[in-house]
Amino acid sequence: MPSTITTLHTYDTVYSADSVEWCPHNPYQQLFVCGTYQLDDKGESLTSNTSQTVRKGRILLFNYDSAENVLKNTQCIETAAILDQKWHPSHAILSTVDASGEVAMFKLSSDEQLIQRDTLKIPNDSEGEQLALSIDWSLGGDKAAVSDSKGGISLITNASDGMQCTSRWNAHSFEAWICAFDKTDQNILYTGGDDILLCVYDIRCADAAMLRLKNKTHGAGVTSLLSLHNREHLLVTGSYDDCIRLFDTRSMRSCISEINLGGGVWRLKPNPSQPEQILCACMYHNFSVVSLNSDQSITLDAEYNEHDSICYGCDWKYGLTEGLAKYFASCSFYDHKMCLAVLKTEK
């Protein structure tokens, strides 16, 4: 069935934009955040190895009324440069990681404003700056994993008296771009790094996570990981080598299938109402929508070419879709542009 994507709104984020996360919780599913990361005068990208980056950023909170097609920016929070954000799986709490190596928690109030609740500096085992690059929550929401620019992974508990780091280990030789819990087994954590490795860890060990597997299938750094609630033993990866790959986690020597989308794949976001449909941020190309088929092949459904710069952040709107219309937000870097669009599929 052919699909088309239509832009409904564009917004100038002023600072370079790199992260979008839509709130999954009622009654706040009309809200989403866009994170920004301001560059220095040298114009280096988010993924640059340089230490000379401007550290300021912002969290922009948006409210979208789909019935009236009205988009409003309702809050702007000054922060260190944001690299990733995730909503807690059970509560209306936003977690962010930034260029100062901190994790921050923001509670969403009843009047739809983000209020900072807690911060934690992730451990730095060596000299020099350390950026916190990605964060993911376990299925139960009792712990989070954070990856960093020195190749480390930190496990964090979210207790009533605040966040605590329970362990940190070196998972990769270079930047650990991404980490993700297995959504059907919270004891398993996947990590991807600039050393082209995809690693699988068992985090039940008290002292340090146990490495179960190193996969060297990717042709460049592993930048995105996706485990689905409804598909046990399935892992989707994205890489700088432009490909999305599908793995059976019971046998990961090679992938089941792959598709080249072009541009390097930075983020993978499943459609909440149709998890097999995935929104992909293809950095130097566009945003693409793909589907995982019953025969475990991957097909390209639609492409969104509204952005003229590095495509980093994207996410789908939660809640009921209106007919066959599915809303999503996307953002790009140097043109500091955030878009709200709708995907429609013909019957």
Automatic annotation (TrEMBL):
Broad EC category: hydrolase
Name listed for the protein in its UniProt record: methylated diphthine methylhydrolase
Q: Which domain of life is it from?
A: Eukaryota
Q: In which pathway does it act?
A: Protein modification; peptidyl-diphthamide biosynthesis
Q: What's a Pfam family in this record? A: WD40
Known EC number(s)?
Answer: 3.1.1.97
The record, for PANTHER family, names: DIPHTHINE METHYLTRANSFERASE (PTHR46042:SF1)
Organism this protein belongs to? Aedes albopictus
Membrane-crossing ranges are: none
Q: Does the keyword Hydrolase apply?
A: yes
Which UniProt keyword terms apply here?
Answer: Hydrolase, Repeat, WD repeat
Q: Which InterPro entries match?
A: Diphthine_MTase (IPR052415), WD40/YVTN_repeat-like_dom_sf (IPR015943), WD40_repeat_dom_sf (IPR036322), WD40_rpt (IPR001680)
Task: Write out the catalysed reaction.
Answer: diphthine methyl ester-[translation elongation factor 2] + H2O = diphthine-[translation elongation factor 2] + methanol + H(+)
Q: Which family does it belong to?
A: Belongs to the DPH7 family.
SMART domains, alphabetized: WD40
